Amino acid sequence: MSLSSSPTRRSLIKSVGLAPVLNSIGTVAQTDARPLIVDCQSHLFFPEVLEMMRRRKTEPLVYDQGGTVFLKMGGWLRKVPEHYSSVPAKLAVMDAAGIEMTLLSTNDPGPEWFGNDGPAVARLIHDSLAEVVAAHPARFRGLCVLPMQNESAAGAELDRCVKKLGFKGVLLYTNLAGAWCDEPQFHWLYARAEELGVPILLHPAKPMTTDQVGGYELTSTLGNMFENTIALARIIASGLLDRHPRLKLVCPHLGGTLPYICGRMDHQLHVLKRGPQNLLRKPSEYLRSIYMDLVSPLPEAMRFALDFTSEERLLFSSDHPWVQPGEILAPLRSLKLSAGTEARLLGGNARELFQI
Q: Residue 82 has what pLDDT?
């Protein structure tokens, strides 16, 4: 049965406004014999969490205006359409794109923005996510977000998520309420993730450069990409990857801009002797050892990433609901990669990395 042939699904598509998206990619799952896909970065706003923020008097908070839900964090105001918190809507998009399984996470604000309430917020997020995974065990796996302002609570929640709830990794924001994720108070997480064998996936939060890139609505275009770039460069320069050589680290969006400028970082550290001089390798060598996801809808960028690193280090992700899966799949498939390489990028690498 095709995606749109079921009356229930026709009603769903109409109610959440997915028809234009699914019309463009709706035949993928039916006519394409390509490998099924694992999506490593996809997000959901949980109704319970939105309702909690709706009751808050201080930011971050949610409010309704003119039939639209808004999420407010200072000057950063975002709309949250109904389908951003709809599991059936996400499953419909997955089916249309041929996505077999999604590694699902919330999106910011993370627990670090809620002060002393952070541990309780993390538990609410994870309990909500665990319910979705339990209801659809063949389609979803979970990634946790931790209350990093409270090390003991974050450590306990990490253990609960991995050992009890079966989550497959940690989504770590590039900055944690204004503190970069490589700062000393967060080093315990890298050690613990290495010990547990679970990947850490970086993800941009409310950008530290929000004020600088807010003009012309360039926050997502520039702010998020600079977040990835700065956070990853700081992790490399900090020596964390030397201290934790078995750490599984994933950077989204093809590493921000760092793959394109890491030659300059090599030159600064190794030729001009600026910055830390205790690293065991060149920055570009560390960068080639991490994983990157393919959320950058430009085939030339994907080709560069493949040439820069290797087919073993790239992962398909959609960044849904902010990006539709077809906007990543189409440029990837335009590269005409070998069947083996495409299978690795679309799902094989993810299955190995996340032990699915």
A: 95
